[in-house]
Amino acid sequence: MTRLLFAAALGLATALPAAAQFRNAEHAIKYRQSVMQLQAFHFGRISAMASGRIPFDAKVAADDAALLDTIDKLPFVAFLDGTDKGGNTRAKAEIWSERAKFDAAAVKLQDEAGKLNAAAKTGSLDAIKAAAGGVGQACKACHDNYQQPQ
Question: Number of structural domains, the chain?
Answer without folding.
Answer: 1
